[in-house]
Design a protein that fits this description.
Layout lengths: L1 H14 L5 H16 L3 H5 L6 H25 L9 E5 L5 H8 L6 E6 L2 H13 L4 E5 L13 E5 L7 H16 L3 E5 L7 H13 L3 E8 L4 H9 L6 E9 L1
Parallel strand pairs: 1-2, 1-4, 2-3, 4-5
Antiparallel strand pairs: 5-7, 6-7
The chain binds S-adenosylmethionine (SAM).
Amino acid sequence: MARFQEWLDALEARHLADLTFSQVSGALRALSSAYVERRAKLTQGTALSGAGKRAAFALFYAPLHYLLVRHVVEAIPGATRGPATLVDLGCGTGASGAAWGAACTPGPRVTGIDRSPGRLAEASHTYRTFGLEGRTRQADFATATLQKGPARIVAAFSVNELADGARQVLLTQVLARIAQGDRVLIVEPLARFVAPWWECWRNAFQSAGGRADEWRFRAELPPIVAKLDRAAGLDHREITGRSPWSG
Ligand SMILES: C[S@@+](CC[C@H](N)C(=O)[O-])C[C@H]1O[C@@H](n2cnc3c(N)ncnc32)[C@H](O)[C@@H]1O
């Protein structure tokens, strides 16, 4: 957890250098309403426009995603063992790839894929902070040709940002990778907006020999996350999510 704290301290220093706490908590309120109500902005890639929202994502959602993915990979038998390569699809600031990578000994080499150059720069920093050899690639992760396996592949909170057609293309690619023996973890919120495509993915993973879980656990939130949670009128004392896994 020392590296997790080091990562948070660096994020706090960087993002709160030019913004006040109340600017970031106001941006967090706007961002959480975009995630819940204005989903179209996500497929257009505009949900994180503005320094305030980028800071809110980095200081609030990214640490929550880290804690959830770490919990998930430690709970699924065998998930922390496996190939030396990890691909982080829609890596954002790299939180979920780092969470999985940091739970493994030895840590895998991580490739983060995202369409946003700014987030890829953050992801490089994140992987480094967690002692992982990381590289990043700017691409559309739904259609990108992935490096040859064997690999672990994670897509956390990113599949729901794809348009329906792109999501179907990705599912076909992911199932082909599972058939080749790759380990694949998809993580999404429990929120209702995921439901329309969830069943199809869950069934596909289960037919391929995998499993699907819903997660709910209480975690002690890092102080900056707890403070933002209260200030923005949210309540993440219980961390939740769902995941299909195949390994
Ligand atoms: C909510 S963030 C999740 C980031 C990270 N996986 C995490 O768990 O914190 C979703 C990310 O997916 C990226 N993204 C969405 N659609 C994409 C696409 N078609 N190709 C590449 N990146 C995409 C966005 O730029 C954003 O960084």
